[in-house]
Amino acid sequence: MWIAETSKAERKTLTAAFAGYGVDAFDYMIYTFVIPTLIAAWGMTKVEAGYIATGALITSAIGGWAAGVLADKYGRVRVLQWTVMWFTFFTFLSGFTNSFEQLFFTRAMQGFGFGGEWSVGAVLIAEMIQAKHRGKAVGLVQSSWAVGWAVAAIAFWGVYAVLPAEQAWRVLFWLGILPAILIFYIRRNIKDPEVFHATRAKVQAEGGGHFLEIFSPRNLKTTVFASLLSTGMMGAYYAVTTWLPTFLKVERKLSVLGTSGYLLVLILGSFIGYLTSAYLSDRLGRRRCFMLFATCAGLLVFAYTHIPITDQLMLFLGFPLGFFLSGIFSGMGAYLAELFPNELRGSGQGFCYNFGRAVGAFFPAAVGYLSTSMPLGEVIGLFAAGGYILVIVACLPLPETQGLELAHSH
């Protein structure tokens, strides 16, 4: 096992980043489970439900870029703590809301921290872990999204089993405060990587390293195509995951337990997809892996939402759908870290990943809007297909960076 070849410091950093991203997932995915309850309780429309998801994703894009810039300036570890504290607080606050407007505000505020956590965690891991294992390490951290999503699904099932729906959704949001404990672990166990200290000393001595340099002629092509790559992945993923629970409940007429069961199969597929793709991105190369997973995910989403299939076959299809839908992200953290020079790594990675998140954020709102005049399943499939075609097109002009040593890159 490759983890046996890592140092104690590397493993502690992996633990912190894994937990941080898992918490991120839990706090974000809770909302997707309570949409049907809020539609019933508040008379909220599907369009408004889409706006809340989109609002949080737009602020998460801004938060992600800002956190990347701050991490280049103040250090990876310090900014990681700030982001965890921020998003857990606003998730907790969401449990006290009483209207669409209030929830829109708390979820939008939560987004700032949610976006920042991934940006900083991925840079931290990419810089800490040796090059030959970087793809696997960042992919392992990415897999914790499935763990957080699974915990959210189980919490949803458990809380709704013991409490009436009008109370249960609040309790789910309140549970989002618990992960703040993680801040203490990060403070005690994690230090900024040597590459970061060396680069900061060099930038202070020589000048340069301003975040806007990612748009300079030397870096512009990379920034543009990496941002489009991220947009395709994010848009397709958000279109499917934001609306799938509602699609299963409203169009497939599944019970809450049925919905949770379907989602757990999807989530298990996601977890194994992350780990498999992480391994493949170190073996096949980053770009080849993205193109393979985009093609398979696009075909599966189409089958899942367009072909009239039985509930049993749909349950069976959930596993490969999750596998490809989520697995495509595994190589992304490592790839973006490798594309940018040391002094711009946080800024470049933060911008590209979160540009994709910002544009992709409009997909759930667009799905909600179009589903008033078209079947929801068809709309989900349409947006997913467009996203995955963009992934393949954006990969072609970008370089392959597999095995690149960050300390000596550029």
Tell me about this structure.
The structure is a single chain. With 410 residues, this protein is an all-alpha fold. It has one domain (7-200, 211-398): Up-down Bundle (Growth Hormone, Chain: A). The chain is built from 16 helices and no strands. The chain has helices spanning 8-42, 46-74, 76-94, 100-128, 134-162, 165-174, 182-189, 194-206, 220-250, 256-283, 286-306, 311-327, 332-339, 345-360, 362-370, 376-395. Helix 3 (76-94) runs antiparallel to helix 7 and helix 9 (220-250) runs antiparallel to helix 16. The chain is globular, with a radius of gyration of 20 Å. The chain starts with 7 loop residues before the first helix and ends in a 15-residue tail after the last helix. The relative contact order is 0.16.
Distinctive features:
410 residues, mainly alpha, Growth Hormone, Chain: A, 16 helices
Architecture blueprint of SSEs:
Layout: H1 8-42, H2 46-74, H3 76-94, H4 100-128, H5 134-162, H6 165-174, H7 182-189, H8 194-206, H9 220-250, H10 256-283, H11 286-306, H12 311-327, H13 332-339, H14 345-360, H15 362-370, H16 376-395
Helix pairs in contact: 1-3, 1-4, 1-5, 1-6, 1-7, 1-9, 2-3, 2-4, 2-14, 2-15, 3-4, 3-7, 4-13, 4-14, 5-6, 5-10, 5-13, 9-14, 9-15, 9-16, 10-11, 10-12, 11-12, 11-16, 13-14, 15-16
Uncertain ranges:
none
Report the CATH C-level class. Answer: Mainly Alpha
The CATH superfamily name is MFS general substrate transporter like domains
Radius of gyration: 20 Å
Instruction: Using the 3D structure, state the CATH architecture.
Output: Up-down Bundle
Structural class: mainly alpha
Large-scale geometry:
globular
